[in-house]
């Protein structure tokens, strides 16, 4: 059974604002639904962005829903026991800040695979599990027993303070020659 033996455990999947049909297809298969049932999950909610409208395959007791966009992804993440995310920095850091068990699937088709560097680094520090869409069922099984390190907290006032300090620093006047 799942950690905490909670009755209403679920998984939230987010692909961000772009299209990541490969991940959406992987989490809408009958095999994935069977794995969720095996592990005691009750629901799956999938954010598909600009991707193709999904079709959930297989019969299951897992309640499965999808949507395109919401202005409040953090509240969707908050409800979930596990978050499966594309490798976008915003989505990844939001899930980690919420202290969610996180599986990241890098969308390799975007801008020269720019998501990979962050995902690999956070995986090497044991903050998340890195998986390919084809291996998502195994990743969900693995995250149940993964010894992940908490990401920690951050002070969101530090960056604005740094900018303020930098802007207040005296600079030599510019002269035109």
From TrEMBL:
InterPro entries: Glyco_trans_28_C, UDP-GlcNAc_transferase
Glycosyl transferase family 28 C-terminal domain segment(s): 11-126
An individual GO BP term: dolichol-linked oligosaccharide biosynthetic process
Domain of life: Eukaryota
GO MF term set: hexosyltransferase activity
GO cellular component, one term: UDP-N-acetylglucosamine transferase complex
TM stretches of this protein: none
Family matches, as PANTHER family: UDP-N-ACETYLGLUCOSAMINE TRANSFERASE SUBUNIT ALG13
Protein name: Glycosyl transferase family 28 C-terminal domain-containing protein
Source species taxonomy: Eukaryota, Sar, Stramenopiles, Ochrophyta, Pelagophyceae
